[in-house]
Design goal:
single chain, about 290 residues, two-stranded antiparallel sheet, globular, cell membrane, transmembrane transporter activity, amino-acid transport, membrane
Amino acid sequence: MELFGIPIQAMMGQLLIGLINGSFYALLSLGLAVIFGLLNIINFAHGAQYMLGAFGAYLLLNKLGLGYWWSLLLVPILVGATGVLVERTMLSRLYKLDHLYGLLLTFGLALIIQGIFRNEYGSTGLPYSMPSQLQGGQNLGFMFLPNYRAWVIVASLVVCLATWYIIERTKLGGYLRAATENPQIVQSFGINVPRMITLTYGFGVALAALAGVMAAPIYQVSPQMGADLIIVVFAVVVIGGMGSIMGAIVTGFGLGLIEGLTKVFYPEASTTVIFIIMTIVLLIRPAGLFGTQK
């Protein structure tokens, strides 16, 4: 069976790959949007923190014998804690300065982290096996759907929507948004704003680490895996709108699908299509599709 002269199995296979990529785009851009939207920090270390998540899972398995499910629980907490430490000891000193200083600091941290792991493990990717419970797949007739990839898509969507709900529909989210607009008023209600900011940054970092754990069985664990992805994720954030939570989610999944379709109909443009879309969006709507014009 063919569609537009292309076998349906090939098209659905590329759409699945696009949806998998879109799941990671959405999770990572969500973490960036949370950090920028609530803290006004452009976190260039996000790709390195994603890589730390994958390496955290790899090290827990090989050093402590803890498998995928333990890593899924522990690694985001541990990497998020390193984010808390970075915010308290470094970023908190830059809030009164130009945003460029925060960008330069996080960019430098990314280079240091990647350099340390490349020195220790080299540039060759390291394998990480998927959990036995999610091996195999389902034959849907028109395509074969691997169980692990279906899990990644569903889990990413649940985490993204839960984060959106907490920030946009709960009292805690209201406090977070208010603290970015007028921290003095929020502080007058007895809320510890600096602690809230620290935990928010840690949460954004934890989202990157969670994506890294889920990516480990699909892609090889490598010091460069974050550097290869972060530029695309920044493009996703710009298209969706800097700081827009729903924009990060919708744009992440949507651009993953567009990238997958481009590989079917015009493979030569598959690596640039997201940047072409970013250019068009910036020309028409500089604040992004879901951003607020100021």
